[in-house]
Design a protein that fits this description.
By secondary structure, this protein is an alpha/beta fold. Helices cover about 40% and strands about 20% of the residues. Strands 12-13-14-11-10-15-16 form a seven-stranded mixed sheet, with helices on both faces. The protein binds NADP nicotinamide-adenine-dinucleotide phosphate and magnesium ion.
Length: about 450
Amino acid sequence: MSSTYEVINPATERIVKAVELADLAVADKVIQRANKAFASWRQVAPGDRAKLLRAFAQVVFDHREELAKLEVLNAGHTIANALWEADNVANVLNYYSAAPERLFGKQIPVPNGVDITFKEPLGVVGVIVPWNFPMPIAGWGFAPALAAGNTVVLKPAEYTPMTAMRLGELALKAGIPEGVFNVVVGKGSIVGNRFVTNPLVRKIVFTGSTTVGKQIMAGCADQIKRVTLELGGKSANIIFADSDIEAAAAAAPGAVFDNAGQDCCARSRVLVEKSVFDKFMSAFEMAVKKFRVEDPSLATAQMGPLISKKQLDSVQSYLTEEVAFTGGAPTGAGFWMAPTVLMPKKTTAKVWQEEIFGPVVSVMAFEDEADAIAKANDSDFGLSGSIWTNNSSKALRVARAVESGNLSVNSNSSVRYWTPFGGYKQSGLGRELGPDALDSFTEVKNVFIATDK
Ligand code: NAP
Ligand code: MG
């Protein structure tokens, strides 16, 4: 029996649309369709597969405004972010469209023959996406998967199915053959879990919470199913006294409040060198108060609402510490919350250790370089982080010492589609994006050919 889910606009709490949710039987049917399509998709000539991916990229780009507006409506993303997100899908498709013609193997010297390796596709790849960045996270999975010759079943989060459904239609419009790229809207516990248990799915790319990621990894063990995990974060923004404090303070709100803090890379722990703590905090307060939280369809909006009432309640349950200061937010309908700054006293505080996934940041002072590194690493997570200093040797020393997959110096930007992205420790397993992501979507096959008579 199928059921429906009512998609809510988080900025107004109005119903956008009722979507049908797939049950187990539907999920299995789609997986079978993808498995059938694999036989022919893997045989498509590399140049033709490249052309199809470029066509898909172009169609996405041609529909960027429509896709962006859907995301504003469905997820409350600011229009500026949503346009970037639609473009990111097109860019990632374009980037990996170069891969089919460059999936090189090796020729390895061996005695008595010739040895060559091939990068073979895996089969059906299941991509499970969270609600915080529905478009880019889907693209980071499906673009390299398709490029390497796999077929894809994509499950968006229940809250945010709209852009995924549209991308499924746009793929067909671009000429991607039926069954190659499939979108199945349904519950994680049903459809997502079926990707794990159905043996026709050969790999899972999961982005979401660490709790569900652990369940998926354990489930995949049963079939030795390949898995890539992109999980939570509690990233540190480390500000040294020798940095441009004004610039660091002006950039710090965007680094954590972008997407209402619902960002695995959010710099939700700010570490400030003691000697400049007060100077930083007064500049930071001004920047937070100026941060524009408003109707996300406005071009001026820097932050929209949270995704749901449930998420808002969960984030607000963390506000047990004394609040240092807040920014502003609209009142009335919608899941709005003002950017909030806390100053916990101890690193054992819940707000310092747990991923809040909302517009809340904790600030703490540090003594010296060693203390900054120790405090930054005092976390189960290790996804991103920033280091602000004008001493380039120190910047590199600290970047090497912080246990995290993606660090930025004098910048808070973590994501470029042509560089690897992923986490240390409980922030994940494997890397997405960049030149090496294709390794996670292929098996290496070694073939020896005897040449002796
Ligand atoms: P979530 O509950 O882990 O859900 C993520 C996805 O997994 C959704 O599509 C969900 O479907 C599905 N799912 C839930 N239970 C499942 C199961 N048992 N088997 C298979 N799939 C299942 O996370 P969320 O609430 O959407 O997102 C918030 C969390 O994700 C945060 O902790 C955040 O840090 C993390 N995150 C990490 C990254 C990263 O790149 N590292 C990016 C974004 C988010 P339903 O929607 O139907 O529940
Ligand atoms: Mg969940």
